[in-house]
Structures are given as C-alpha cells and as structure tokens.
Design a protein that fits this description.
The chain has about 180 residues and is α+β, with helices and mostly antiparallel strands. The protein is built from 6 helices and 5 strands.
C-alpha cells in the first residue's frame, strides 16, 4: 500500500458508471418489476451500498476509509441496457475512484445474477471512471471523450441514413423517372 501520510487532506470526488446490456425480455422484466426474485433495481442499489463498505476486502491496496457522502443511481440507458452510476466523496488523503468503480461493478453483477435465468447472454460493459477531482494528480473528466464519440457516432449514423434514403428514393418510381430524365 502507498504511504499517504505526507499528502494534504483535500476534498476528493470520484464518479464512475457501468452498463449491462440485456435482452428485451430481461429489460421488460426489470422495468415492469415482474422478476420472481423481487425488485432487481432495489437489490442492485443495496448491493452497491454494501460494495462501497467492502472495497478494502476486494482490493487490499485501497486505503480503508469511509466516504463522507455517496450517491447511487440506477436507470435505463436505452431499450436494452441498465446503467449504474456511483459517486463517492471525502476530505481525506486518498480518492474514491476504486470504491465508485467497485460499486458499479457489483450493481451490474447483481442484475446479472438476478436475471440470468431469463438470459445468460447479458453483457457487462463500459465500466469506467467518469470523473475525479482533488488530489495530487488533479482533475479528470471523461465527458469530452464521450461527447466526441457521440458526435462521431451521429455523423456516421447520419451518413448511413442519408445513403439509405437516397437508395430508397432512386429505387422508387420518382427516382427512376429522375434518373431517366437526367441521363437522357
């Protein structure tokens, strides 16, 4: 473990998120609350809280100190994914990154465990640190990268949609008429 006794105590905040991709049947069972084992999102929230308290056991290199504040959010990212977000903050000599990541992972694993009878092909993805502030290494924000990826995705999607629309148009009666008029 790293010696943190020389570091200054500063306000530190870490935010992480993770996603579990599920089938439509699993999504409907979670969203509708029809799971046989109970409220999947409620149990996953509790799993995240318990994980925050047990981070030291999983990774011995993490300094043991409780976070002063924690935030837990679970929601639906899109029609086939459940997203878990976590935030931890304290005013100590070490950050909360590992705790936030571990909470998101435990939530996703809990959802997997509770719904694996319906579909074992669920996929836990996109587990990453969204941001951190405070400490010697300074601030980190992932949103710029995420926003750039979203813009690139929208551009590619727009080009594909435009190509599809043009193909449909030129294969229609108006498109055939226009092609003949332009060629002749």
């Amino acid at each position: 473990m790293v010696d943190v006794s020389e570091k200054k105590e500063t306000e530190r905040i870490a935010r992480a998120s993770g996603r579990i991709l599920v089938s439509p049947a699993v999504y409907e069972a979670i969203a509708g609350g029809t799971a046989k084992k109970g409220d999947v999102l409620g149990v996953a929230r509790i799993a995240g809280i318990m994980a925050a308290k047990k981070t030291k056991r999983r990774n011995p290199a993490v300094p043991s100190a409780a976070a002063d504040a924690r935030e837990h959010r679970l929601g639906f990212a899109r029609a086939s994914a459940v997203e878990a977000r976590a935030e931890g903050r304290n005013a100590r000599r070490h950050g909360r990154q590992m705790e936030a990541l571990y909470r998101c992972e435990c939530r996703a694993l809990t959802i997997y465990d509770m719904r694996q009878a319906l579909d074992k092909r669920m996929e836990i993805t996109a587990l990453h640190l969204d941001s951190k502030s405070g400490g010697k290494s300074g601030d980190f924000r992932r949103w710029k990268i995420r926003m750039a990826l979203k813009i690139a995705h929208l551009r590619v999607r727009g080009i594909l949609l435009l190509r599809r629309w043009l193909a449909m148009f030129f294969n229609s009666n108006w498109g055939i008429f226009l092609r003949k008029a332009l060629i002749d």
